[in-house]
Every structure is written in structure tokens, then in C-alpha cells.
Amino acid sequence: MYTPFPSGGAEPGTDVSVKIDAFPAVFAGGVPLETAQVLAVSQRPLAAAAFGDAAPVAAWKTTPAWGIVSADDHTINPDVERFGYERAGMREVVELAAPHLAMIAKPDEVVEVIETAFAAVS
């Protein structure tokens, strides 16, 4: 969903969000429906400009990084996730049978990846 907002510049800004009724299936599949519904109505939109802004520094070029591929993701194609992680040279990529919100659907597995990464750099 695209919602214009005044940006203070010549052009209005645009917020991007997921339609509330589509959110559970598109963004939160695999998450309990009641939780997905709460997330749907409380989501914070993303400014569309963020999709085109270049990062001034890519931390993954100098900092060890780990990634999680959400194999059941309906928001970002898992092949795109895999490609990005391979291109970035991630130290380790873990694939989970999880939706986009893997941290909610599979919290123990996500914590394990974080703890593994922490142990490797400590």
C-alpha cells in the first residue's frame, strides 16, 4: 500500500506498508493468526525513498556477517536472499523453514544463529 505524506520538499514522500488484510499471508505466514493481526494493525510504514537510498558504507565488507534465509518467505523471494548473502560473502547462512518474520515464527533457531555469530567474534 502506498500512502503519500508531506515531506517538506517539492515532492511528497510515500510510505509503503502491507494491506492489513493481506499482512498475515504475505508478511506473517506461519505466525499465529492473532499475533499476525496485531502486527498488521501496528506495522510502521517504510519510506519508499529507502529502496533507492545508497548506503554510504557497507558494513558487511569489513565486518563478519551471518544470514538467515527464510525458505517460506512470501515478502522477499528466498532465492534473492540466497543471492544477496552469497554476493556479500557471509560467513555462514542458515536456512530456516520460516516465513519473513522468522524471529517470531522460529525464535529459538534465530537466537542460535545470533549466539553462533557472537561466539565467533568474541
Quick summary:
With 122 residues, the protein is α+β, with helices and mostly antiparallel strands.
Describe what this molecule looks like in 3D:
This protein folds into two domains: about 1-55, no CATH class; about 55-120, no CATH class. The longest helix is centred in the last third of the chain and has 15 residues, at about 105-120. It contains five helices and five strands, in the order ββααββαβαα. The strands form two sheets. A three-stranded antiparallel beta sheet has the order 1-2-3, with no helix packed on it. It has a two-stranded parallel sheet with strand order 4-5. The chain has helices at about 25, 35-40, 80-90, 100-105, 105-120, and strands at about 1-5, 15, 45, 65-70, 90-95. About 15% of the residues are buried.
In terms of DSSP E residues, the strand content is 15-25%
- Tally of structural domains: 2
Percent helix:
25-40%
| pLDDT averaged residue by residue | 90
Instruction: Please report the distance between the alpha carbons of the first and last residues.
Output: 42 Å
Tell me the number of helical segments per DSSP (H or I, 4 or more residues long): 5
The assigned structural class equals alpha+beta
Tell me how many strands there are: 5
Low-pLDDT segments, ≥5 res: none
Q: Strand count, sense and closure of the main sheet? A: 3 strands, antiparallel
Rg (C-alpha, Å): 17 Å
The order of strands across the largest sheet is 1-2-3
Order of helices and strands: EEHHEEHEHH
**Overall 3D shape:** globular
